[in-house]
Amino acid sequence: MNEPASDGRYMLHVLSAVAVVIPARDEAELIGEAVRAALTSMSRAEQTHGVRSILTVVFDSCVDDSERVAIEAAAGDARAEFLSIAAGKVGRARAVGVRHALERLGEPLPNVWLANTDADSAVPEEWVSTQLTFARNGVAAVLGTIEPDRHSVMNAHTREWATRYRPIDGHGHIHGANLGVRADAYVATGGFANVSSDEDVRLARSLADLGFKLVSTKQAPVATSFRTGGRAPHGFAEFLQGIRSSG
Predict the structure, then answer these.
(1) By 3-state DSSP, what share of the chain in percent is helix, strand and coil, each rounded to 5?
(2) CA distance 109 to 45
(3) Domain ranges of the chain
(4) If 110 and its partner were Cys, which of 35, 172, 184, 231 is the partner (CB 3.0–4.6 Å)?
(5) pTM given for the model
(6) From the CB of residue 179, how many other CB atoms can be counted at a distance below 10 Å?
(7) What confidence score (pLDDT) does residue 128 get?
(8) 29-56, pLDDT tens digit by residue?
(9) What are the CA-CA distances from residue 70 to residues 60, 96, 161, 164, 233 (Å)?
(10) Helices (H), strands (E): how many in the chain?
(11) What is the largest CA-CA distance in the chain?
């Protein structure tokens, strides 16, 4: 275990605000559930940790009804805000969402927690609260696990994935669908890279290289879509596709 650093990397932080960020690209079928789940988790965190929260959904090059479905799912909740860009890169979409949320919150960076997930994923109610509990004990980033959602078809390929996956404390997985980071630590890395995939992996590695404290936990797994046709090159869907090709 590293000794506590004097520059704030391991100091206990008073967190006053949370930003949940969701990038979306043609996810009309699932984004409504993602938005509702995020807002529910935010409400619980407001009660358990006394924070204020904002949800930022970034539609990137969408040509379906994702925006309409997401706005309807928010049901007028003032915490939900929506942006549209045409980058075609999930890293850019996440970065735009984070920047917007930080500007809207106007809080000192060490006091803001950034909870990241995906438009095809539904976070559990305790998701934000779980991350905040880690954060208030000096953790700069929380790397969570995933599990198949109720829409996923469990076939030979997804069952093979399940035999390889290790949803345990101290796991080695990194998922943009379940990744939390303190805002000052995020900014110190330069933020999400302007790439089409692996922006989550790059961020986690940069945080570790800079000496920030990371925790990999099995708590509060996020239900995500298990599909072989994905939006991001080299993403989770491509991993499933690789299992199918090699089977």
Answers:
(1) 40, 20, 40
(2) 19
(3) 17-246
(4) 184
(5) 0.89
(6) 25
(7) 99
(8) 999 999 999 999 999 999 999 999 999 9
(9) 13, 18, 30, 33, 24
(10) 8, 10
(11) 51
Return the pLDDT at 247. 38
Rounded to 10°, the helix 236-246/156-164 angle is 110
Name 155's Cβ contacts closer than 8 Å, sequence gap at least 6: none
17-246 folds as Spore Coat Polysaccharide Biosynthesis Protein SpsA; Chain A (3.90.550)
Tokens of 135: 């954060």
The per-residue pLDDT for range 104-133, each reduced to its tens digit, is: 999 999 999 999 999 999 999 999 999 999
Tokens encoding 16: 């006053």
Residue labelled with tokens 């949320």: 101
H or E element at residue 121: strand 121-122
Sequence length of the chain is 247
- The CA distance from 191 to 185, in Å, is 9
Buried b (16+ CB within 10 A) or exposed e, 22-57: bbbbbbbebbbbbbbbbbbbbebbbeebebebbbbb
pLDDT tens-place string over residues 51-78: 999 999 999 999 999 999 999 999 999 9
